[in-house]
Amino acid sequence: RQADYAKLRDVEPFTRCGTRIQVMMNAGLREDISNLNLVGADGIGLFRTEFQFLVSATLPQRERQFRLYRDVIDAAGDRPVIFRTVDIGGDKAVPYLRSGEAENDENPAMGWRALRLALERDGLLKVQARALLEAASGRSLYVMFPMVSEPWEFDAAKSVFEDQLAYLKSQKKVLPEAIHYGAMLEVPALAEVLDQLLPRISFLSIGTNDLTQFLFAADRANPKLAERYDWLSPAILRFLRRVSLAAVGQPVDLGICGEMGGRQLEALALLGIGYRRLSITPVSIGPIKELVRQVDLAQITEAMNGWLAHPPENLRTTLAEWAAERGI
Ligand code: PEP
Ligand code: MG
Hints:
Elements: H1 2-7, E1 22-27, H2 33-39, E2 44-48, H3 50-54, H4 62-76, E3 81-84, H5 100-103, H6 114-120, H7 122-135, E4 140-145, H8 151-170, E5 178-185, H9 194-197, E6 203-206, H10 208-215, H11 234-247, E7 253-256, H12 264-272, E8 277-280, H13 282-292, H14 297-309, H15 315-325
Parallel strand pairs: 1-2, 1-8, 2-3, 3-4, 4-5, 5-6, 6-7
Helix pairs in contact: 4-7, 6-7, 7-8, 12-14
The structure holds phosphoenolpyruvate and magnesium ion (MG).
């Protein structure tokens, strides 16, 4: 199989009906950069910047952040790299940053983490913003904020970047050619205010790992619950379809960057509810490209619409049978 996937490296993921699907890669460390060309991804759809913080004994200084970001952008060339600002806290504790308050979080996944922490420790976000803006000088920069729960949090985070941009401009530095700001949708409440959010952003990426834990109130790190709730359940798929319908006709790029998109049946279901951009773990890129090439979008869309209107006993089994009948 590995040899087959290597063959798919240079193959563009067009569906059978001729639609180009974006298959991007999730990354977070310098070592991941080499995978980008190895697997033939369309760019990095999620660069988890907190990894550099998690593997460091002390707070990574601006220069070190800058070097990492610049090297990733260089390696990606013309392909986009979506940098997610630090998602620290929750299961990603950084001892040198946590304050007494955060350590008392009883539910860290729902606690003082990600943007909530970054907006209060805005020195952290300022340094990161400077490092990213400088690393992307003369290029396009894609910045994504994690755990946005209300639109004002997006505005507040963006204005930290805009302030740094103004500073760099005053210093006559070479600025990025374009800056695209986006949000992650992983807190269900955000889906209820998409009419307010979408006009503010240029892309939206759904973090199905956290989204699922919040939708089902099921800790993603609890092994007892790992098999309990299925990504192919009508609750999740209806939710995701509602979001994709809300984005139709809006100038917003929509994608999925949770682990769900890297699994064959899940990816098939996502194509059937309107998703055209998946950012997934590198080893899944080959298999998902292979899947994409066998899919007829009209067929899977019609099937998904039927199943979501009247859910079968077990959507996973039904979808698996449907796929097998078509040689997918
Ligand atoms: C997610 O929550 O789905 C996601 C992509 O982010 P992380 O797994 O880093 O929380
Ligand atoms: Mg997340």
